[in-house]
Amino acid sequence: MINSIQMRRPPLVLVVDDQEINRDALGVILEDDYEVIYAENGQEAMELMRANAQRLSIVLLDLMMPVMTGFEVLEAVQEDMILKNIPVIVLTAEKNAELQALKLGAADFIAKPFDLTEVILARVERIIELSEGRQLISAAEHDRLTMLYSRNFFYEYTERLYTYHPELHLDAVVLNIEQFHTINALNGRDFGDDVLRLIGNEIRAFLAETEGIASRFEADRFEIYCRHQDDYGALLKRFQDKVTNVLHRVNIHLRMGVKPWSEGMEPIILFDGARAACNMVRGNYQNPLMIYDESLHLRELFNQGLLDDLRPAVSERQFKVYYQPKYDITCDPPRLSSAEALIRWDHPVLGLLMPSSFVPLLEGNGLIGIVDSFVWNEAAAQVARWRDKYHVIMPVSVNLSRADVFDASLIDRLVSLVKDNDLEYRSIKLEITESAYTENAVQVLDMVRRLRELGFEIEMDDFGSGYSSLNMLSEMPIDVLKMDMKFVRNIESSDTDRRLVSLILDIAKYLRLRVVAEGVETEAQLEFLRRQNCDLVQGYYFSQPLPPDEYEKLIEKEVQYSREQAVRREEKDDDTGTLSENRW
Predict the structure, then answer these.
(1) Which of 292, 322, 343 is the last residue of a domain?
(2) Distances in Å between the alpha carbon of 63 and those of 311, 359, 506?
(3) Tell me: the pLDDT tens digits for 248-290?
(4) 55: domain CATH number?
(5) Domain housing 261
(6) Residues 398/431, Cβ–Cβ less than 8 Å
């Protein structure tokens, strides 16, 4: 029966000597334990080394040969990233040549003539064992793609540098690639690997100019422990320019965080700070560099405190929902139409916190869904209370974050929300930011279509912030455009913004979409929007966001106005003998 277990092949040894008698002598010594191949000169040796680079365990190399000497072979091997890992024992009768050979990378030497067989075998065996051990360590020690240190070895060596070389004041630098998963998805993993190799090579080139070490962590994070640089902006530009110039067909953006050396601060703490700084500039293409300082440290402590307080804040109902009114300006006077639900955090220590203090933080940590759910439930319950109290439906818009849109249970949750409060779907309007449509657009569009088919009204928030194309807009299942407030802010002073607002309103009219203009603060802004046939506005000109009890005063005022109008119509109808319908 044939044994299914293959025997391990013996180590492969290359013997290089121009004298046949020497080749034969070494062959006799080695052939019982090793597979032996032969070359007569350095040129043949290089060809055999390249052909057998993956299997070759050791080379026994004569120094004095025609065509190409052993010294020339050693020099060529040292310049080859693959061949330099193959150990070489030089064969020489000249004592003066040994030191030069060792300087050129030789692992050991065997003196000619070959008189002690046991010594030769022992030297070959020892060098092969040492080489195999080094290769195993190197494989674990270095990242395969970039040849930078792997995570565990990097931290081990940073600790050694910190402990044994305190005179080196080394900074911690973290370099990240923006949206690397998207780069991989669009261009393929091989292209992504090319990006990583390119950055790794440039980091090694930088370290060759200064003191320090580097590592690649996870997919796209690089950590560098190096001497202080006077201008880290220039260093980031160096890495960015390298990527841009070589891979110019794809837009690749890097960001960097730095924690400078501090007396008594261990490397692992420095890198915690550098990572925090790097995370702070995620998505910031205008300012992709952050130096960690005391103010950043205080901000990090503040943010962590908010994250720790999040769940107690929900259970203790510290979050408050405010309502900013939207007014219909197609009639005169403008009429209260609906509201946008906006979150506030009534923190027991910090006081009333605006959304800018905590919403981006929660989004970045994947926790925004907790607050979104709170707002949805509060808003739906409030619409139901106003309906029961005033016998009118006051629709409320709530925000859907990108995380919400990709939640498989989103539709079921929103349907339950409407049914539990005995509402119609049109009572809850769903606002989705323009930028959300650009990430996994097919999945987002499918989800939005299903919500719209149920009866929810869909509003695109922050339209004009710079992401969607007109072609994409025509395909989006939406009902309302909410024009970004930056356009409205400048329409009194900027002819360009006035033209842009007019263009957006024309596009919306062509697509049969209503438009909400945000941030209206002056009568001049309002009048311009009315002349351009804008449908709805919100902003401080009419009202700031209000707590529910204060918003109710606006509802009461509107209800009273509707009653007065109804009375006038009835009186007019009595005079004319016709009937008209109450519009509110």
Answers:
(1) 292
(2) 74, 71, 84
(3) 778 889 999 999 998 888 999 999 999 989 988 887 888 899 9
(4) 3.40.50.2300
(5) 151-292
(6) yes
3-state secondary structure of 73: helix
pLDDT tens sequence across 472-486: 677 778 899 998 888
In a domain? residue 265: yes
**Are 394 and 530 in a shared domain?**
yes
Tell me the pLDDT band of 84, cut-offs 50, 70 and 90.
confident
- C-alpha span between 399 and 405 (Å, rounded): 10
Q: Name the nearest CA neighbour of 17 among 52, 54, 60, 72.
A: 60
Q: Any idea of the CA torsion for 395, 396, 402, 407, to the nearest 10 degrees?
A: -70
Are residues 356 and 380 located together in one domain of the fold? yes
**DSSP conformation letters of 95-123:** HHHHHHHHHTT--EEEESS---HHHHHHH
* Whether residue 383 is found in the same domain as residue 287: no
How far is 307 from 295, CA to CA, in rounded Å?
18
Burial 39-54, CB ≥16 within 10 A → b, else e: bbbbbbbbebbeeeee
Q: How far is CA 466 from CA 52, 146, 148, 392, 462, in A?
A: 56, 36, 38, 37, 9
* CB 267, CB 275: distance < 8 Å: no
From the number of C-beta atoms within 10 Å of its C-beta (0-12, 13-18, 19+), residue 384 rates as middle
Q: Total domain count for the chain?
A: 3
